[in-house]
Design brief:
The structure is a homodimer of 183-residue chains. By secondary structure, chain A is mostly helical. The first copy, chain A, contains 9 helices and no strands. In chain A, α4 (54-78) packs across α6 (97-110) and α6 packs across α7 (114-135). Chain A binds chain B through residues 26-30, 107, 109-112, 117, 120-121, 124, 138-139, 141-142, 144-153, 155-156, 158-159, 170, 173-174, 176-177, 180-181, 183, and chain B through 26-30, 107, 109-112, 117, 120-121, 124, 138-139, 141-142, 144-153, 155-156, 158-159, 170, 173-174, 176-177, 180-181, 183. The structure holds a DNA duplex (30 and 30 nucleotides).
Amino acid sequence: MMGTMPRKPVAREAVLDAFESLLIEEGERAATLDAVARRAGVSKGGLLYHFPSKEAMISVLLERLDGLLAADVKAMADAPEGAAAYFIKSSLWADTRLDRAFVAATRLAEVAHEEALRRFAAAQARWLELLAGDVGPAMAKAVLYMGDGLYFNAMLARGPGGPLPEVGADLESLLAAVGRLRS
Amino acid sequence: MMGTMPRKPVAREAVLDAFESLLIEEGERAATLDAVARRAGVSKGGLLYHFPSKEAMISVLLERLDGLLAADVKAMADAPEGAAAYFIKSSLWADTRLDRAFVAATRLAEVAHEEALRRFAAAQARWLELLAGDVGPAMAKAVLYMGDGLYFNAMLARGPGGPLPEVGADLESLLAAVGRLRS
DNA sequence: ATAACTATACCGTCTGGACGGTATAGTTAA
DNA sequence: TTAACTATACCGTCCAGACGGTATAGTTAT
């Protein structure tokens, strides 16, 4: 055997998490290589060892999102309360791994990152399909846009001190709205 | 008399429009001073003659938005079809002056521009008020989020060759959805 | 057993380019 | 004459990425 098994790459995950956090809390502009390295407690050189370019770092982040998204689509299809209700609930910011990955990717889409945009389009299509199966094709768009609007507002809520306001109160009325659309 | 009247500032409006277009079509990152000047057919010096800084340029753009927004809120309040239906209709991308100013400002909010974020929050509050008067406070949020979702999707449709897809078809189903929420 | 070697996991510094902004000297049109 | 420009050179800062070096841990030949 030529290969050996030296130290574990602890920095790798730390870098990815730091990148995600910076995107969410301060936006794409703030997520520079230096800032990411600093927050991850890693040197810039160390960062670039694991991710040869910023683009590579983004790729891995989007890959991670894809996995979480696939699992969520499955859960949505099997949700007992129906796809639409599940979708609205899961559109509320809850600081889950999916939420974080999604909003982070949103920051990239905002600055016109091609791959991020493509993944969003794909996700939207899958969601719309499931929603149509639940509330019919006519109302599916209405529900989809409601969920998107929720994320749009999460986008406007910035910073580590971001309010993440009374979304809990919104949930009831939104679910009630979905109920009316279904009938 | 016949006081000497100097030339009209033709470049000023051209610069603002170019800035707006670049924000909409290519995002904030692409809207550099050089790029704006180039698109406006103006020298960089000429641009900085009218707008001493980029921040000043942004300010004027947001001012323009505020004026258009105020007029739209008035129209929404007086709309015979009701505030909610008007709101949904006006949330569809139609390449109006308001739409352009709004999406351009969205690009700034995306990169956490403080003033842009504040103006959005204010606009949202006014809209929510009017919507509550039309469909009730419980359903108002649902309608608001639908409109926001529409803009969220406009945001994802990028580039000069951006599709601006079958939104017309969406309108019917969304208005139908609003009808159900009102009852 | 240990010296020599190898592969991985980092660190710190430097470079080249882009961007916001300044400065300045000249040109055009009302 | 004066405001409204054009054209160009330049500065300081920030950023992505390159590069060379170091540290650690396992492997192999002796």
